[in-house]
Amino acid sequence: MPAARESLLDAAYAALARRPWSAVRMVDVAAAAGVSRQTLYNEFGSKDGLARALVRREADGYLAGVDRALTGHSDLCDRLTATAEWITSAARENALVRAMLTGCWSERLPFPALSAVPSTSAVPAQRRADGPLPSPGDFVALVRDRAVTVLAGPGTPKSDTADLARSCELAVRLALSCVAASPGEGGVADLVRSVLQRQAD
Fold it and tell me: Which of 3-7, 94-98, 162-166 bottoms out in mean pLDDT, i.e. has the lowest?
């Protein structure tokens, strides 16, 4: 991603932390990024284009964190537990991620349509941002499928892959329930481990 585009997205994200999206001005985002307002419009086309690009970047960052959690351990239970912990911490720390995962968009946040919008942008990253954005259900499926891909070894029987997919989806959905209502003592890790161990017995 070109440096100017990334700086503009950083500036938009920082502005969103200080004020509602409706009060974020394009001229202020451009000034904070150290570029002209014309550069901002060349990159994103409009404030809605900026919103879509910001949501797309945060979605990509969230999924990159899922990938790191899935590969950071050797044990299946530890990998799914780390993934569940990442889901809850990412949602706790990033209001855009929380909104994407739950579908609960506050008035403070941009709320771009999830369906694709017509794009005339010459910028490939913006054409991608103008494409469809993931819904909460899409995120569940994306994380489940990534987990299955990482955790299922080559030659894994289809029946075992189906069981693994159920375990992965269960861990994701447990984590999302902890986003909506904080878990008790022990947190999401204890909850996911205990459920996965019961499933294995």
Answer: 162-166
